[in-house]
Amino acid sequence: MEVLGVPESDEPRMLKLTQELFGNADPDLNRSGKTITDAGEGVDSIQSVVMDFMMYFNAITEDRRAKPRDDLASLIANGKINGEPMGHLEAMSYYIIAATAGHDTTSSTTAGALWALAENPDQFAKVKADPSLISGLIEESIRWVTPVKHFMRTATADAELAGKKIAKGDWLFLSYPSGNRDETVFEDPFSFKVDRTPNKHIAFGYGAHICLGQHLARMEMRVLWEELLSRIDSVELDGTPTRMTANFVCGPKSVPIRFKMH
Ligand code: HEM
Fold first, then answer.
1. At what angle do helices 11-22 and 88-100 cross, to 10 degrees?
2. CA 100 to CA 1: how far, in whole Å?
3. % of the chain exceeding 70 in pLDDT
4. Is this structure's pTM higher than 0.85?
5. CB of 109 closer than 6 A to ligand 1?
6. What distance in angstroms lies between residue 205's CA and the mean position of ligand 1's atoms?
7. DSSP H or E segment with residue 234
8. Number of alpha helices (DSSP H) and beta strands (DSSP E) in the chain
9. Using a 6 Å cutoff on CB, does residue 174 contact ligand 1?
10. How distant, in Å, are the alpha carbons of 152, 154, 157, 160, 166 from that of 169?
11. Tens of pLDDT along 247-259?
């Protein structure tokens, strides 16, 4: 939020809007508090959140055009493509992705990691005994949780992949959780291993649009685990975890745990 240029006082609002957007299908998280079963109703509900984001960032755009600062919002507000000012929809899309992409992705990953550590005390003991495994824990939790479930791509050329024919113009649903459990790439893909090497997961996507925030996400998680693992001696589940109802960006909704500190 700081890099983007959102003032600290508006951070809770950005988090709430993000959760309403990605939690649109979940009555505990969405705006209406109701289960959405109708596609049209789902789109309306998403649009009302997007409108709020747009109103917020329209005001930021005006401010940064008048008084540019050293932040990402000023770059977007004054951005040009081929010498022409960036279009309104493009600018709004940039703001919205930068404002939403870092919340539930990272927190879902840490919550899912704690859940996995609670269920795999040997892995907890391993990383606790050897903090140099924290980077392994981070990569494995990102693979394990894969909080971004998919993006779409359009094929630009005919191709064949694993015996499947893909025609130019076809829409492709890139299922990151499936790729991250691919048994031809990962040994024992359904086991959570903090020392998994190599760990060539695709949870941050691939190619030109690979996650812009991947280094920030890893750094945030590193700080959390370094501080937490040096303080807690054990962790176990204290109830049944629940998951968000969603199909785009999601993860655990609650992970009740019991832990010991020294
Ligand atoms: C564990 C945490 C995260 C995961 C798993 C994740 C995953 C992803 C994925 C799968 C994409 C799409 C890549 C593609 O289309 O090929 C993406 C894009 C993006 N992410 Fe993340 N992300 C995470 C954290 C963050 C954070 C902390 C930020 C910071 C703001 C961030 C900002 C972005 C942005 C701006 C894009 C769009 C990049 C583009 O389209 O060029 N992400 N992320």
1. 100
2. 10
3. 100
4. yes
5. yes
6. 8
7. strand 232-237
8. 9, 10
9. no
10. 12, 6, 7, 14, 9
11. 999 999 999 999 9
Does the beta carbon of 211 lie inside 6 Å of ligand 1?
yes
Of the candidates 119, 250, 122, the residue with the CA atom closest to the CA atom of residue 194: 122
Q: Which residue has the tokens 């005919």?
A: 158
> Is 37 a residue whose pLDDT tops 90?
no
To the nearest whole number, what is the mean pLDDT of the chain?
Answer: 96
The predicted pLDDT at position 29 comes to 94
Residue to mutate (ligand 1; options 204, 216, 223; most atoms within 8 A of CB): 204
Helix (H) or strand (E) holding 253: strand 252-254
Domains and CATH numbers, the chain: 8-100 (no CATH), 104-261 (1.10.630.10)
- Torsions phi, psi for 19 (to 5 deg): -70, -35
C-beta 203 within 6 A of ligand 1: yes
Handedness of CA 62, 65, 71, 72 (dihedral sign): positive
Whether the CB of 108 sits within 6 Å of ligand 1: no
